[in-house]
Each structure stands twice: as C-alpha cells, then as structure tokens.
Specification:
The complex is a heterotrimer. Chain B is of the alpha/beta class. Chain B is built from 20 helices and 17 strands. In chain B, the strands form six sheets. Chain B has a five-stranded mixed sheet with strand order 2-1-3-16-6. Classes of the chains: A mainly alpha, B alpha/beta, C mainly alpha.
Chain lengths: ~270, ~425, ~290
C-alpha cells in the first residue's frame, strides 16, 4: 500500500515534469506575445508580462497582410480537406471491398509510392505548374493535396472491417455500386472520415515548403510562410513574432485537441493495424 | 477537383480591384515599406492607375525574383539590387529601356553619377534606372576612437589596424573593435574590390588566387585572429545599431540606411557619439562597392507603359529628396544632391566622398552565387583563426581558401563558358 | 459490374497520384541527367544531356558530404532519442497509478499538432545565448551559457532538442496502443514467477512491442531524413553550414539557384539513401525475428 503510494507519487511527479516541458514553450509564447516591445530580451527572462498588452497583435494585423494570410490558410486547408475526402475515400473503399482487374498490382504500386519523399517530385511539379500557368495560384498549392496515398491507406484499413453481407444485401436489392457507397458505406465510414479530414487539414495548415515556392504574392501567402518571412526580416521584434505564432498555433491546436479522440484513433488504425 | 479548385480560388481571391490598371511593384527591404507613401501621390496624379506594392525581405529577395522568373510570375516593375541586374538581363527577363529613356523629359542620363549609371548597362542596352545609391563605409563611435587616441578613422589599412588594436586594448575581452558578421559577404567584398586585380578573369574564370584577393583576405582574417572582431553571424547580432550604442563594438561597415536606423533608434544623448568615415584602403582612401538599387521593367510586364510612368515619377529629383528624408537612402542624381539638407550633413558627407571611389562587382550572371560561396569559404576560414595562429599558418589558411574558391567558381562558370563559346562560334 | 465500378471508384485518385507524383518522379529522374538550369529556363537550347555528370559532381562536392553528415547525425542521434522519450512517456502514461490520464496525454501530445515554423520561432528565443530560458535554467545548474545556434558544435544538438520536443507525442500514442494490447495475464504470470520490473520489461513488454517499434523506427527515420523547416527558420543552414541538411542543400540548389538538373540528382540520392535505410531495417528485423 505504502509502496503503491510512493510509486504513485513518483509516476505522477515524472508526468508533471514531462508535461511541463511539453507545454512550457507554448505557454511562454502566449506570455511573450502580451509583453511590451523588447521586454522578453532581458536577463533573466521574464515569465509573465509586467503589464499585459495586446499591442503586438495590433501591430501584427496592421502591418503586412496577416489577416489575409490567415484567411488564405483557412481557405486552403478547407479546400485541401475537401479535395482529400473527394479523392481518397472512394478509392480507399474500393481497394478494400471491390474486386476489379489490376487491383492488387495497383495497390502494391501505391504502397511503393508512399516511400518516395514528396520533395523528389517538387521540381518537375513546379515546371508543370509553370506550363499550365498555375504558379502563384491557389490551385497550384492545392494540386498535391489531391494525391494522398496515406489517406487512401487509412480509409482502406478501416473499410476492411465492413462486413461483406451488408454490401451483398444492398446489391441483391439492385442498388448500384455508387448508390451503395453513398447510402451504406459512407455512414459506416464516418469516424475515419473525421480522422482523414483532420489529417488533411493539419497537413495543409502546417505545410511550408510548397506554398513558399508556389506563391509569389505576399497577399496570397499562407500563415506559416508569412510568419517565416516576418522572422527573417524582423528578427529583433520578438513580441510581434510570438503574436504571429499564437495566431498560427492556438486556434488549430484547440480544435484538434477537442477532436483528438478521432485523430488518435486514425493514427492507430493507420499504423498499428497496418 | 478542378471545380473545387476553381471555387476555392474564387472564394479566396474575391477582392477584385476596381481601378482600371494595377501596376505591381516589388521593392526590397525597408524601402518597400516606405515607398507606399510616395506611391499614393503618384496614384493621385494618375487616376485609373493603382500601384500594388510588395515588400521583399533582402534575405530572400534573390530567390523570390528567380522563382518568379522561372514561374512566369514576375511583377511589372521591381527595384532591383543592381548586382543582380546582369543576371536577370542575361536571362532575358528584363525589358531594355533605351527608347523610353531617349523619349523621357524626366530622366536625363547625364545627371546621374556615371559609375552608377553604367552598372545598368549591359551589351549596349540600358536595363535599369538608378533609384538610390549604396556603398559600404565605416560607422564608428567617435568617443571610443578618441579614447584610444584617434580623432577620426584612419585612411590606410595599417593605421586603421593600429586604431582597432588600440581600441581592443581599451575595451577588454568581452567587447570588440569592429563587427564583421561572418555570414555577410559585403565586408570582405569591399576590401577585395579595393585591389587592382579583378575578381573574375575574362568573365570566365575565378581570380581569387590573385595577390590582391589574398591580401584582402589576409587583412580580413587578421581582424578575427587578433579578436578585434567577434566571430558572430547576423543571426546573433540582429540589431547592430543598439549594439554599437552599447559599445559591443566600436565600428561596423554598413550602408546609408544605417544613418536612418541610428537616428531613429538611439536616444538624443548618444547622437553626437557616432559618425561615418570613408572606407580605409591598403595605402590610403580605398574604394568600396558600387551598390544600390535600380528600377527595372520585366519583359512580361502586363502594363509596361504605366510601369515606366511610375519609374519617371519616383526618379524626379524632388521625389528623390523626399525619399531621402524618409529613408536616408542617397539619390543617384546630382540635381537631387543640390539640397542643403544633404550637402550640410556631416554624417552624409563621407558617403559623397566615398561615392567618388566606387567599383562595381563583376557583371556575370553567377555573381550572387559566387559571392555566397566567397562568404561560405571566408566564414570557415574566420572560424579557423585565433590569437595562436602564426603568420605562416594564416598564409596557409588564406591559400587554402583562395584555391578552394577558385575551384568552386570555375565549376560554377562552366556552363557560362560553354554558352560564351557557342555564342562566339555562331558569330 | 463491380469490375467497372471498381475503376470508377479509384481512377480519380490513381490519376491524381500519377499526375502529381509518379510522372514528376520519372521526370525528375530524367532531369537529373541534364544540366537544366536558369539558362535552360531562359532558352531550351541551353540544356545539355550530361549523363551521370550531376551525380559525379555531387559526390565530389564537400558541402553535399557535410550535409549528409549533418543529416546522418540528426537521424542517428535524434531518432533513437525521440523514440526513447516516446517509449518512456508511454510507459509512464500506461502505469496503473496515473491520475488525470487524459489531461497528461493531451499535454504531452500538444506539441505534435503545432506548426513547425511557428514553434521554431519560440525555440529560437528559448535557445538565445544571453536572453534564452534554456541557458537561464542551465545557468542555475552551474552550466556556462551555451551558444546554441551560433556555435557550429551546438547547432545540431539544438535542432535535435527541438525535434524531440515537437515529435515525441506522436510515437507515444502509438506505443500506448501497443502497450494496451499486451494481455495483463502475461505480467501477472511473470510476477508470480518472481520476475522483477526490469525482467518483465525485457521479456514481455519489449518483445510484444517489437513490431510497433520497427514501424515507429522506420517512420521516424524517414521523417528525420527530411530535415528542412527547422534550419530554414532557425539558422538558415548555418552557422558555418553546420545545420545544412541534404534537403536544405537540395532546396538551395533547386529553388534558390535553380540548378534543377543538379537538384534532382540530390533528390534521387536522398531517396536512394532513405530506401536503402528502410530496406536494411526491414532485413535486420526479419533476421532478428527469425533468430
């Protein structure tokens, strides 16, 4: 009994320590974003602002196009999520449940493609965008979002668990395959759709290299690229950049943590079962 | 998918401008933030023309310009760092401006400093109109130099070195005599341009093993070896103006924009404690980089006519003087210099003096890459020297660096040599 | 019937993957045998087929080797460290005496969901030599200030600290699931046999986690090989190119200098290395599981 209590203290104490390390930078980011200019650049570094102020946020939104960048990021992430759902759900289901010529071969090929780092394709893809005039367009940024082997993989793993009898019953009723997909399969797949949506949204929201290359106009840039530009040009203005980081991180963090049940579930079905 | 993409584009780009013509202007650095106020007057004078200004950070401007060129996404007009002009002109990205200049009543080539105007000329065409001039010289703390026994910055390297040593002796181990960020190439470049030998031979081969460049590199490295300069990057010292005020170092090499930064950032009590001086040379007043920014019009510009009107407006002597007042950037035209505010300013006088002795960087398209390589090699060398380094070891480090630099530069120019050969064969 | 339906279900995705991934990868392979560069963009006649010259040049470039060395260091030190922290955190969280399990899990998982670029900005401040928290805390322990991002010897360790903080929560979740799938009776039986805590970990937990561990190792290493955003934001590849990774090198060659043929060769060498690393791990794992 007492041994258990000691152990409980040790385990929970260790967890508190690890949690502190994990959360401290984020908490400190919020704290610095509310400090007066230059306040954070003192030694010892202050933990909380002497007089909390939202000036850094005001400065952030009045200079440059941060509000516009925020809107761009949201719009692109929503569109990328929609594209990912539109392209990958039906494919993932078909690879799991429908029989067609070349299925196994195609699936193996796709699994092989998963090993290719996206960066290998970037240069030719950029030249392709140039050919069709999509450089500096949102469509150009969204193009890679259509192809997401991992998304197909995720849906396929989940769809493997759909009982065949369910589909057969619908087929005997004379329903077409697409009708079955919409009426029977999609409702069953709902949890994994939420997962896929979160993955796609996060991937787009956090993406950096591709929008950096494709979009040349400041006004079209996404939030992470704008923050990176800020941090290279205004390296001295700490508080301003922290405010930018808060805007980039906190809203999405809140949403994803609220939905973490789905996110984590997907993470597991995508990796462990495979 | 196409429909979704189109919808997304429509949703995101829904703020259409109602003005008939939108001229897209890119400008770099702090000037990009300031030019907006000048443009407002231009728009008032030209109803129906809207100017969209985009600011590019200097650190990513070059890659952004090239990306835009490769992706066919260039703006109408850009204020271009003029060392990049040969590159973009060679690639056919820029429109020649000879006809416009000949017709113009505003832009008179004879009014510009000849050295500055010539930078914009390539193969018998003019591709740019200078906006402001820029060169590197010494910003220094008058009190720290005085305390070491020097009323002003000496004009020759040996005397300069003596002054820096005397200062270092006074300020101790934690402070320094000069700041030379090891990840910037401009400082070493300025010293190298003071030499007689060119840095690139025939536009085809690196010439860094020449006695001149080795002399410049030796002097440069000596400043680190004797710990007169700290081995720091500009990531570490991102605000040199405040650090100068704090006395972290007694001088640094910067351009005219630092006049404005110092006047804005330092309290009134410290304004009398700094000044500027021409760059010392090996045996007396030396040359410095013929830098600055020129307006160029892109070949793919959607509105070249309006772009040219904008250039003419921003090149007017009165507008250039206003621009000087806003930024401290120095005008390239003599008529704009006929301003008591400029002529009577002691801190600016050193620039007027230095502008008499400026040299351009080699006009090869690969120049930016070469300069970056020079910085890489010199940074590595700067990290290898210490007070324990003997003169023999220093000479070996310099030889290594020069040899490596020539090898890398020759490799970079390989394609250019092939193109030049082919061009000559075709003639 | 299903036959035709099957293709109508998968063809949009397969087409997209072909257009966006497969064709560009093949095109990159072709590009890597040319000297396509800015001159080539300006005029197609300036492009030459040069066979393997890009690859030869690459192997003779010191910066490529140091970038490879930096990346290898990041992978070899960062990945095991990251996995060890994940496993440790998972074991802690899986203990039966943990209070407020959900809250702890959320806290440890939070860094995973953040944007690299934005948190890199925070860490750049935490790493600051004179004003940073890390040196302040270390100073309290009697450690002299470390020039994390300015000293070529410390810049890579700084990247690793940052990456471990950012990523460990992801693998932690996978490990928790793995731990929960181990039947409790196994531990009970071992306890009755008198096996201690360490023995139980070695003989029950580790073998049961082996497949998960293999997967996590491969995914983590593949991810760590692609180091880019951290040095781009924090150090620009410096100081003295000590944080220039292979991908950063490729980015500079490709999208800074537009040596597209050469950069494609870099991308393929990186791909080959990652593929070889993955196959090697799979082969080793197969051998161990047989032994």
């Amino acid at each position: 009994m007492t041994r258990d209590r000691v152990e409980a203290w040790l385990v929970n104490g260790a967890l508190v320590a690890v949690a502190l390390v994990a959360v401290f930078p984020l908490a400190w980011m919020i704290s610095v974003s509310m400090m007066a200019p230059g306040e954070a650049s003192t030694s010892p570094p202050p933990l909380v602002p002497a007089a909390p102020t939202l000036d850094a946020y005001r400065a952030l939104f009045t200079r440059g196009h941060i509000a516009r960048n925020l809107l761009n990021s949201v719009g692109l992430a929503v569109a990328a999520t929609a594209l990912s759902l539109a392209f990958n759900v039906s494919a993932g289901y078909a690879f799991a449940k429908l029989r067609f010529a070349g299925r196994e071969l195609t699936w193996k090929l796709l699994l092989g493609v998963m090993l290719v780092p996206a960066q290998v394709a970037m240069i030719p893809l950029f030249l392709l965008l140039k050919q069709v005039g999509l450089v500096n367009s949102y469509a150009g940024v969204l193009l890679p979002a259509m192809a997401n082997v991992f998304g197909i993989f995720l849906v396929r793993q989940y769809a493997l668990g759909i009982p065949d009898e369910l589909l057969e019953a619908a087929r005997i009723d004379g329903a077409s395959e697409w009708r079955i997909f919409v009426a029977v399969v999609l409702p069953v797949l709902r949890p994994i759709l939420v997962t896929l949506a979160i993955f796609a949204f996060l991937a787009s929201w956090n993406d950096f290299l591709w929008p950096l290359i494709v979009l040349t106009d400041d006004a079209k840039q996404t939030l992470p690229v704008a923050i990176a530009a800020l941090s290279r040009e205004h390296a001295g203005d700490n508080e301003l950049m922290m405010a930018g980081s808060v805007v980039t991180i906190v809203p999405v963090l809140a949403v994803v943590l609220a939905l973490q049940r789905y996110y984590i579930q997907g993470l597991l079905s995508g990796s462990v079962k495979g | 998918m196409i429909r979704a993409a189109v919808i997304a584009c429509v949703l995101l780009a829904c703020h259409a401008d109602d003005a008939a013509v939108t001229v897209r202007l890119w400008a770099m650095g702090p000037e990009g933030e300031v030019v907006g106020t000048l443009v407002a007057d231009f728009e008032r004078a030209h109803p129906g023309v809207h100017v969209e200004v985009q600011q590019l950070p200097w650190t990513s401007a070059h890659e952004k310009l090239l990306t835009a060129f490769v992706g066919d996404a260039t703006p109408d007009v850009t204020a271009l760092g003029n060392t990049w002009l040969p590159e973009l002109a060679e690639l056919g990205a820029l429109a020649p401006l000879d006809a416009e200049i000949a017709r113009s009543s505003v832009i008179a080539p004879a009014d510009y400093f000849p050295g500055v105007w010539d930078i914009n000329r390539l193969d018998d065409h003019v591709f740019g109109v200078p906006w402001y001039v820029d060169t590197r010289l010494v910003f220094y703390r008058t009190d720290l130099f005085a305390a070491a026994g020097f009323a002003r910055v000496p004009t020759s390297w040996p005397d300069w070195l003596a002054a820096l040593r005397a200062i270092k002796h006074q300020v101790g181990a934690a402070r320094f005599a000069i700041l030379l960020p090891v990840d910037e190439f401009e400082q070493l470049l300025a010293l190298a341009l003071q030499q007689d030998e060119p840095l690139i031979r025939d536009g085809r081969w690196g010439n860094f093993e020449s006695a001149g460049f080795r002399r410049a590199l030796t002097f440069y490295l000596q400043l680190f070896a004797e710990q007169l300069a700290p081995v720091v990057t500009d990531v570490q010292v991102s605000n040199p103006w405040d650090e100068l005020a704090r006395g972290y170092f007694a001088c640094f090499l910067h351009g005219p924009w630092s006049i404005g930064e110092l006047r804005r950032r330092l309290p009134a009590a410290q304004q009398a404690l700094w000044s500027t001086a021409p760059l010392p040379g090996p045996n007396g007043p030396g040359a410095s980089i013929a830098g600055g920014t020129s307006f160029v019009v892109f070949r793919r510009a959607a509105h070249p006519r309006e772009a040219w009107q904008l250039i003419e407006y921003l090149s007017r002597p009165d507008v250039e003087r206003r621009f000087y007042a806003l930024t401290g950037d120095l005008p390239p035209r003599r008529s704009a210099w006929a301003d008591p505010e400029l002529t009577g300013d002691a801190q600016v006088a050193a620039f007027r003096d230095q502008l008499e002795r400026v040299k351009r960087t080699p006009p090869v398209p690969e120049w930016e890459r070469i300069a970056t390589e020079m910085r890489t090699v010199s940074e590595r060398a700067a990290r290898r020297v210490s007070p324990a380094t003997t003169p023999g070891e220093l000479a070996a480090i310099v030889d290594d660096a020069a040899r490596e630099l020539d090898a890398r530069v020759d490799q970079m120019l390989d394609k250019r040599r092939w193109i030049l050969d082919r061009r000559e064969a075709a003639r | 019937m299903t036959r035709r339906a099957g293709w109508s279900f998968v063809s949009p995705a397969v087409t997209a993957i072909a257009v966006v991934l497969i064709v560009p990868v093949l095109a990159a392979l072709a590009l890597s045998f040319t000297d396509f560069d800015l001159y080539g963009v300006a005029d197609r006649h300036n492009v030459r087929f040069i066979g393997l010259a890009n690859y030869r040049h690459l192997l003779a470039t010191p910066l490529f080797w140091s970038a490879l060395g930096n990346t290898a260091f990041f992978v070899a030190v960062g990945a095991p460290l990251s996995i060890a922290v994940s496993l440790g955190a998972a074991l802690l969280l899986d203990g039966r005496l943990v209070r407020a399990r959900g809250a702890f899990r959320t806290a440890l998982f939070a860094p995973v969901v953040t944007t690299v670029v934005a948190v890199a900005v925070i860490w750049r401040d935490l790493f600051h030599t004179r004003y940073g928290f890390l040196n302040y805390v270390l100073g309290g322990l009697g450690v002299h200030p470390i020039d994390w991002l300015g000293d070529p010897h410390w810049s890579m360790p700084a990247m690793i600290v940052f990456a471990v903080w950012k990523n460990f929560g992801y693998n932690m979740i996978i490990f928790i699931a793995g731990l929960q799938s181990i039947p409790g009776e196994l531990y009970e039986a071992a306890r009755i046999d008198g096996a201690g805590r360490v023995a139980r970990f070695r003989h029950i937990t580790l073998p049961a986690l082996a497949p998960t561990l293999l997967l996590v190792t491969i995914l983590t290493m593949v991810g760590y090989f692609q180091l880019f955003a951290e040095p781009y934001v924090m150090t620009r590849g410096g100081p003295a190119q000590s944080t220039t990774s292979v991908l950063y090198f490729m980015y500079e060659e490709g999208f800074k200098w537009w040596n597209l043929g050469y950069a494609s060769a870099v991308a393929f060498v990186l791909f080959a290395i990652m593929l070889a690393g993955t196959l090697l791990q799979l082969a080793l794992a197969r051998r161990w599981s047989r032994a």
